[in-house]
Write a structure and sequence with these properties.
The chain has about 160 residues and is α+β, with helices and mostly antiparallel strands. It has 2 domains: about 10-45; about 50-150. The chain has 5 helices and 6 strands, in the order βββββααβααα. The strands form 2 sheets. It has a 3-stranded antiparallel sheet, with no helix packed on it. A 3-stranded mixed sheet has the order 5-4-6. It is elongated, with a radius of gyration of 19 Å. The chain starts with 10 loop residues before the first strand and ends in a 5-residue tail after the last helix.
């Protein structure tokens, strides 16, 4: 493993343990040259999942792209980066458990909305406004009314 600070290839593993999701191994390392400590994660490399976009084009699923969207939606919300990482891992695991090689952007967005609704209501509304392409105040009112109905137990 190459040191991210000095680029030396000589590092020692100080600690190694499975992550909570059990889909990766967390390793704490120390560079023998500059003595910097850093963390690495080792994950199984799966066959890529393709996201079918609204225009019909396909692109490789990107955990980083999903996390960036989640970080934007949860900005200034009491949601930790670790919680978002776990959420992204749950989505990936669900897709792999179903044997999915492709998913539409609409299905993926709905999975995110469903999860965000449980994590943080403000993040849910923010993500919905981008995902559903809100173009008016009425769009926000409608999603807020829907959210309130579900929260009050009046949903179908």
């Amino acid at each position: 493993m190459k040191c991210p600070y000095c680029s030396s290839t000589n590092t020692n593993v100080l600690d190694s343990r499975p992550t909570e999701q059990d889909n990766s191994v967390r390793r704490r390392r120390e560079c023998t040259a500059c003595h910097a400590r850093f963390t690495t994660y080792e994950r199984v490399e799966y066959e890529p999942i393709l996201v079918i976009k609204k225009d019909g084009s396909r692109e490789a699923y990107s955990r980083e792209k999903l996390l960036n969207g989640l970080f934007m939606a949860t900005k200034k919300c009491p949601v930790s980066a670790e919680e978002l990482d776990h959420f992204a891992a749950r989505i990936e695991r669900a897709l792999r458990d179903e044997g999915r090689r492709e998913i539409t952007a609409t299905e993926l967005g709905q999975m995110v909305l469903t999860g965000l609704k449980k994590i943080d209501p403000v993040a849910y509304i923010r993500f919905a406004s981008v995902y559903r392409e809100f173009d008016s105040i009425d769009s926000f009112r409608a999603i807020l009314a829907e959210f309130e109905e579900e929260r009050n137990g009046n949903s179908d």
